[in-house]
Amino acid sequence: MSRTAEELEPATARENVRAATDLYAAALPGLMLLGVALPLYFLSTIDQFLLYLSPLELVPTYAAAWLVIAVLALALFLGCATLLRLLSASRLRLVHGAGTLVVRGIAASTCAATALYCTLVWVRTFGLLTTTPMISPLALTALLAGTVFAVGERRQRTLHRLGKYAALSAGLGAVTLVSLPFFVHWRTTAQAPVAPAPGAMVVPERPNIVLLTIDALSAPHVSVYGAARPTTPGLAEFARGAITFDHVYANTNFTTPGVASILTGMRPWSHRALQLASWPLDATRDASLPALLKQSGYQLGYVATNPHAGARKIGLGRYFNFAASDRIEGIPVCSDRLAAYLPYLCPASQVHLFADIAVILGWLHPSHDNREFDPQLAIRPALEWLRGTDRTRPLFLWVHLFPPHSPYAAPSPWLGMFDASSAARTPATSETRWIYLLQQAPPARVRTLAARYDESVRYVDHYASAFLKAAIATLGSNTAVVVTADHGESFEHGYGAHTGPGLYEEVIRIPLILKLPGQLHGERRGDTVEQVDIAPTLAELAGLKVPVSWEGDSLLPHSGPARSRDEFHTSAFSMNFEENSRCGALSTGAVAAIEGRWKLIHYMGALHYPLMPQLRDELYDVQTDPHELINRIRAEPLVARHLRELVEAELQRYARRLPSTWTRSCTGDELPPPSVLTHQGPGPRLPAFIG
Length: 691
Ligand SMILES: [Zn+2]
Known about the structure:
Layout: H1 2-44, H2 46-49, H3 58-89, H4 93-124, H5 135-150, H6 153-175, H7 185-191, E1 208-214, H8 233-239, E2 243-249, H9 255-264, H10 268-271, H11 282-286, H12 289-295, E3 299-304, E4 322-323, H13 336-341, H14 345-348, H15 352-364, H16 376-388, E5 395-401, H17 443-475, E6 479-485, H18 505-508, E7 512-515, E8 523-530, H19 534-541, E9 571-576, E10 589-595, E11 598-604, E12 618-621, H20 637-654
Parallel strand pairs: 1-5, 1-6, 2-8, 3-4, 3-5
Antiparallel strand pairs: 2-7, 6-7, 9-10, 10-11, 11-12
Helix pairs in contact: 1-3, 1-4, 1-6, 3-4, 3-6, 4-5, 8-17, 16-17
């Protein structure tokens, strides 16, 4: 008996040691992710964060990223531990050994990929290797390094030593979680409910308002605006009972500042949502269109299918009664729901690690069509909200649809409609090259991408027009509708997609179709208008006083008081200041000024973009040269000087440094307080065709 026990004891001890070794091996990949990959990736993007966060705010941002990665690390640990346990139970030593090797290989590959990627990011800041596609070679090298490290006794010891440092670094990262309760103010501002102003409850004649923004919809690609391909038959039908504005400029060239301009009535140089994960100034948010509508008794709802276009993420969530945003398949890190609980999650989502994890998940689950951003995922909850909500108070619904944003491949039957070739038919192959990188693509490839983009426009047109019909049928004729975009999309000048300093027509000319309550007949307006004119128009329809801080003018066709658009106010401005600090003076970027037929693109400061050509101010006659092929800056010095003076005068007013607090919540104290909100009676006098 005692002999058997003696034999058993070492066997049990061996088992225990093996189980502990297995657990440690299973923890290694997660530890590398949390303790090596996250800090290195964070450091490699730190300069970007500092454009819109104070150094102190890096702490909660890191904490938010840490939490998300910790969830992934835990899942990875559980997966690896289960695998090793199952293999261990099989009693086949060879199989178990192979399993341990794979798990260690994953840990080593994670480390190698991180080191390689972050070195590459650093090298690219010197302008080197910017053109070489690096993802596949990088992944292969990391795999190879992982395999080499996983085998061999001595290398395994090195890996385990690295694991200890990773555990220490992950533990230090966990300490940043303590900061989260101290940084809830932004979340509080975004979430606290706003009570309607007393006495503003029942004013039934005020119209319901539906705002439909379509991401990256370029007016030159919309057939309502004369595009050669029949891209928007649905919107054309809608426009037959609405006012179509022919010359509309987005105030910027990417999502966050564009959406912010629509909702705040201010241009980016004022609202200062200058980066993708940034948000408008506090004072700007308090005087925004949703804030005013809410205070006057409107019920507000929104659905956004671009993770960066949600009202919560730009700090306007508190003004909405209903939000079903991020109705996209999969869970983006910067999701509306997660952001509601974790402040600084959207800034954290800018750590490239998240994008790389998404790429890896994409490889594991390749999607063959573009259903991820299906417009129906937004439209269904939006219509449900309209149908289920009390009608004694007027409604404001904002829907933001993601297509035709890249990747361009639309699902069937739209895919192949304008280009029958087999090229660029999946999300992966129809992703464009951004900013000045498109100049590297062969012309045939650019033509195919443009055709796929047009197919995607046709795809969104189908659902957008169906949604508009259903919304009007639900709400009745006392409904105002606006259809527009946050910005356009570029396939010209070697300039792809959007963002960056490019402010060419394709990327800043957007559609704007306004259907007034009861309007039956179509009308076209030829004056030059801007995104910031949308908020004053809707405010006037809702019978609200327009705050003096707003930069646009109402577009309603009436001769109302003081602020109506007239012949002296014909200039429009578009801008990109993404390489400036949110509260600092605006010294680097691009501003376009458009007056009548003339458009000046003015470049400021030292711009840093890969492969960017030499940029000097450009002047175009956009009436005779809509593709901006002939720069008239030398031929028309007087026009150029006039427009430059116009830009300089505006920059004098808006481009200065703002007083900032210990967080990057600039106080924006130059803004006048929002005016007292009073409902001004039955609303504007509308033209004769309005029923
Ligand atoms: Zn966008």
